[in-house]
Amino acid sequence: MKKSLAILSLSAMMTAGTAYAAPNNNVQILPINAQIENSVAVQVDGVSISENGFLKAGTTEAMLPLRAVTESLGFTLAWNPETYSVDLTKGNLFTTVKTGEDRYTINKMLTTLGTAPELVDSKLYVPASFVSKVLHGSVASKGSTISISMKEEAKKLQATGVITSIRTDGDNAQIHIQGVGTDGIVFNVGKDTVYQMLDGTKLSLADLHVGLTVSGEHSMVMTMSLPPQTPTSKVTVLDAKTQAGMIGTAGVIEEIRSENKDDLSIRIKGEGLTETAPGEVVLHLTKDTAIVDKNGDKIEISALVKGANVIGFYGPALTKSLPPIGTAWKIVVAEKEE
Questions:
Q1: Which of 236, 248, 272, 253 is nearest to 329 (CA)?
Q2: Is 106 left (phi over 0), alpha (psi -120 to 50) or beta?
Q3: What span, in angstroms and rounded, lies between the C-alpha atoms of 110 and 114?
Q4: DSSP label of 318
Q5: How many CB atoms are located within 10 Å of the residue 108 CB?
Q6: What CA–CA distance (Å, rounded) separates 84 from 100?
Q7: Do 292 and 332 contact (CB within 8 A), yes or no?
Q8: Cβ pair 178, 158 in contact under 8 A
Q9: Which residues 6+ apart lie within 8 Å of 179 measured at CB?
């Protein structure tokens, strides 16, 4: 009977447009008006919120009311009735909390905290570590009060590198720099991210392309994935101009052709970075071709040797020969393995 009351109440909350609903049968629900022992007061950025958390017997980590805490921190919540989960967004940070599962999503990467979200009296509660490890805030405990702050967000790091892929999803995107595959770092960007040239000229996400050398201002917190991902608030293009239509091929230099010092071409065999890029290509180098390392810093052309791991970026115009031939705009030379 108590379980039925809880489900009826949660169903009513869904109708009213709130973020929670009845979970599946594997989730334990405490009854409506359940008495919670060891109540814990919660402060967000020094201001007490109206709802308390609680500390379960035999545990050391407080459970906090998800909606009350995250809305106080400026997050937007959306309930997913099919998966019994809540999506939270703020700027470039996106996370998902699923009722009864110790599986938390941080910008599409999964992590565990040791404690699953719980429904108590029709409210969803999460462990306090959710704030520090998922939302990137700080949590302090003093007596029966939990203090939460997001002021650490003001601290930013810089990372510079050449873009090797961009995966877009509406206003959101993942910009991979400093390598391919598991190498490098991924900037998670969103509608609040600022895009600009080095001189301050405003850009949009659509202006970015593979091959550009960029600097990203990003959070101090990164996922444990390979490559790591991090929310990014500003992306600055360091090249003098963008080059629409750039494509790229990553691989090994199989052959170097040179008639003289001013006529050099390389044959790269590996994998195309874009749908239209071939896995093998011959690239002519000109006086305007940039030879750089993974961070976008210029290096000597002598680094282009047979067997070197490189990423070649070039315009969409290619010959119909096999392999196709094009003109290199930028060549990234990978660091030699020790």
A1: 248
A2: beta
A3: 13
A4: -
A5: 15
A6: 9
A7: yes
A8: no
A9: 161, 164, 227, 294, 334
Residue 195 tokens, joined: 């895009």
The secondary structure of 119-176 as a DSSP string is EETTEEEEETHHHHHTS--EEEEETTEEEEE-GGGG-EEEEEEEEEEEEEETTEEEEE
Burial class (CB in 10 A: 0-12, 13-18, 19+), 228: middle
Radius of gyration of the chain (CA): 26
In the chain, the amino acid numbered 196 is Q
Distance CA 332, CA 338 (A): 18
* Of 300, 297, 245, nearest in space to 276 by CA: 245
Kindly state the tokens that stand for 241: 């101009």
| pTM value > 0.70 | no
Please report, to the nearest 10 degrees, the dihedral formed by the alpha carbons of residues 215, 164, 277, 311 taken in order: 100
Residue 303, Ramachandran bin (φ over 0: left; ψ between -120 and 50: alpha; else beta): alpha
Q: Which amino acid is at 134?
A: V
Q: Which phi-psi region, left, alpha or beta, contains residue 141 (left: φ > 0; alpha: ψ -120 to 50)?
A: beta
What residues contact residue 286 under an 8 Å CB cut-off, 6+ apart? 327, 328
Q: Report the alpha-carbon distance of residue 134 to residue 94 in Å, rounded.
A: 9
The tokens for 68 are 């009350």
With vertex at residue 229, the alpha carbon angle to CA 102 and CA 309, rounded to the nearest 5 degrees, is: 130
Question: How many whole angstroms separate alpha carbon 188 and alpha carbon 107?
Answer: 8
Residues in the chain: 338
pLDDT greater at residue 75 or residue 4: 75
- Per residue in 256-283, pLDDT (tens digit) is 998 776 789 999 999 999 889 999 999 9
Residue 175 contacts by C-beta under 8 Å, 6 or more apart in sequence?
163, 165, 166, 186, 187, 189, 208, 214, 216, 232, 235
Which one-letter amino acid corresponds to residue 67?
R
* DSSP code, position 298: B
> Is residue 335 exposed (0-12), middle (13-18) or buried (19+ Cβ within 10 Å)?
exposed
pLDDT digits (tens, 9 = 90+) for 135-163: 878 898 888 899 998 764 455 789 999 99
